[in-house]
# Entry
Amino acid sequence: MNNPMRDDQITTDPSKPAQRMRAGSQRLAAFPWVIAGLALLVMPYVFTDNSAITIMNQMAITIIFALAYNMLLGQGGMLSFGHAVYAGVGGFACMHVMSNTDFFSMLPLPVLPIFGGLFGMGLAMIIGSFSTRSAGTVFAMISLGVGELIAACSVIIVAFFGGEEGVSGDRTYGLPFFGIEFLQQIEVYYLIAFWLMLSALLMYLFSRTPIGRMANAVRDNPERAEFLGYSSRWVRYYSFIFSGFFAGIAGGLFAINYEIVTEENLNTASSGVILLVTFLGGVGFFFGPIIGAIAFTLLQTVLSLQTDLWAFYAGVLFLATVMFFPGGLAGLLMMHVPAIRMGKASKLVVPYIITLIPALIGILGLSALVEMTFHARHSSVGDEEMTVFWTTFDSHDVLPWAIAIGVTVVAFGVMRMMLPTLRAAWAEANTSTKGGAA
Amino acid sequence: MDLVLVNLIDGLVTGLLLFMLSAGLTLIFSMMGVLNFAHASFYMLGAYFAYQISLALGFWMGLIFAPIIVGVIGAGVERYGLRRVHQYGHVPELIFTFGLALLIEELVQFIWVRNQMPYQIPDVLNFTAFAISGNSIPAYKVFMIFISIAIFIGLLYVLTKTRVGMIIQAALSYPRTVEALGHNVPLIFMGVFGVGTALAGVAGVIAGPVLGTFPGMAFVLGSIVFVTIVIGGLGSLWGALVASLLIGWITTFAKSYNIRMEDILNGIGISTPENLSESMFRDIWAVTSPQIADILPYILMVLILIFRPYGLFGNRDA
# Structure
């Protein structure tokens, strides 16, 4: 983690507050990891349902992938539109290792993702050699082009990508790992959870290495980084390779979990989804993508059961995030740290409740209106019954429309009335009474 | 020889369509320094609006009004979306337009469902213009060629010969100076963004009946447009023209001549392996040019970026 030696050089006086704070955070640094590990262990006992375990597996894979992606976007400032390629190729590689039964039967399944990682890394080494020359627009365009190119190859190079039906395999042919043959979902869950902890820790440690730190410097100002004697191109290249490695691991875990990898795993849509997940969670913080992956997977699985329009809502949410909270969910959470430090966060609770509840009702009303519009426009003739929020009504009737519009308008009106209170409370909570810096 | 001529015309149509999209995109890029990822989505909106208008008022009204509506929407996006995101930097801007592309696709599906729309070529243009040794060239293709060229010349004229064009060009390079001279630069930016998206709208109106009007049409063309302007050199209008025509012709010729990879490899002295069906590289040997026609632009782009990172005509290494 943080190098204590270097901190000592900054301030040697132990009475300095900066020193004390740093020492405290040193001890606390292991705390979130222990909590996360315990949570991963206990989760299957809390949510015993098979479908819940499926969702958690999906979530964990997305977390690894999003963290790998954030290594580029958040830490290195490289916007990639084709990162699914590295995960996908890793997945395909693992599938081919699985189908080579002679070799696979000597290999314990838990080490399989390493092959995915190595393949993802190898591809990243090739592509990165010319794409990391610059960040910004050119990098984004190359990543898009390469992504399209490799996705298109999946229908041409059938031997590796398996054409349209993809490649499938059987994970149970591997060498039993302490007697576990990974027949059950729960066993796979623990395998994925182990890899999640390991890769998240490694990625965190990578972000603390000189290269990880220099990646931030290169993101913010390549010229100055060059001036310090670092080649910004090589720093980008190394970040890219490591990101490819962990993306490949995520792909390998995908292959183990679903036992099938198809073109969908590497096309532009998947790359777009991971960008969405990462940005939604927040690219400015290490844990941002984790929040994003959890929130998005929940949104995807829960919302898609409720409505056909879930992608539409996801799109609106994404645009709203880019426009109003460029720090994502993590940035939103971290905005409260100064208030908590000063012990004034409790003052925000009541204003939050009286503002957010009307806002939530307003959003629900608005989404009801969207659903009703969609139904009224597209339902077949005679089929005018629809169900929104457990109420069934006729979508061509005036009454439900009046209710939905009324609820939305009133709720947003109340929210607007409450906003000054919230603003005042926010300003109050973030002003230090002692006059010191927060 | 006749087939070459037919292919040249077909490639020209594809290339000029591509150029209409990339011209607007290039204009916007050189203005704001950000690539509008949703550009092809405005092309799709153009096609859908034109279809909806053509149901009521006929094709020609669609050709006039759909681009105007698209341009107004584009200007609104710049005014209320992009300008707001601008303060956060270029990467969030790019992400914003990417999200916009997703949202427009969802919106189109929301309003018009997933099916292909029966958007037809107008009856006036639905005949064979001329034939080259049995290959008939429809009048609509000729119409597409002429309208694209007319728009290109018009754009060039406005940009280089008129006062408005001079102000725009100056605002692209020295926004602060132009502002100090009393011109409303944000308004100019909004206008250019609107015109750029309207240009994409025109392309959508005239391509909709030929290439099909369906929710995936933005996606199909979207990445090719980026490839085009990267090959041509970011920010270069002439580069965009050359690259569009190049891509149009390459894909058309690759599709119409069945060149096999095996023949090429044999030609350069690599003999076919004895047991091809067992070889790891059997797919590479079996590849034919029509199969890879659609990915040739991407291969070209990667090659260009390796050997000439600023594109064919680009002068800025962005």
